[in-house]
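User:
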Amino acid sequence: MGTEYKITPDVMAYFTYSRGYKGPGIGLVSGYSLGQPLFSNPEIPTNYEVGLKTAWFNRRLTFNVDAFTTDIKDFQTQIATPFIFNGTNLAILQIANAGKVRTRGVEMDFSARPSDRLTISGNAAYIDAKFAYFPNGTCNYPTQPGCFLSTTIPGTTTTVPATRFFNNTGNVLPNSPKFTYSLNASYDVPLTMAITGFIKANYNYRSSVNFSANNDPLTFQRGYGIAGGQIGVRDADGRWNVAVFARNLFNTRFVTAISNNGSYQTAWLTAQAMRTVGVLADMKF
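Assistant: Predicted structure:
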């Protein structure tokens, strides 16, 4: 639910409250033999948001900003549950509850048309996402700093073979950058009565992240930015366009995930982490 108030015809303030529900997680491998329930508890997010939506100079400039806080009770995540089979220590990945996650942040976006030919837009966000309560994370490897040995899953009465746990309370969520922003610009140049040339540029940035819930220093990735653009032509009715494009223009290297088992690290690469140049053609019928 929410409410809004028009301060002026072009400035509106608003407030929203929302509460969600995500059903219980289901273990595809039965956990009953491990002393674990087959279902995890439902995930319940509660969100508060306040913001402003504004327009200026006959709507040639729009600017919006909001601040929010979200608490997620019984956040569903994946953990490794240990068990013994034929005398061998093994583990299975199961959906489990991390207790509580808290996310707070500020977001903004804008769009500006300084002239009929030029459009500039962008957005930015600062988000602090942490485990407010998650005492039973499992360690990636036996010698990981902060690990402790237990035969009971912390925060529960469930018994397991001796396992090294890690208290994730207060740690940042995996793969959650604190700061992100993007900028886009487009400039049109009429070439004839029927054809328009255009130039587009974009830049996207995200700050450093850790891919592990336990903030393992060996699964850390520094912040990076990616630039791209297009140069092309289109017809006046927008039925077709042809452009030369570049993605990741400066060949910025990054990965989508890093794991660490104590002996070595594994990084997942992506084609987006390599410069791509090509020709794009689009036609509408």
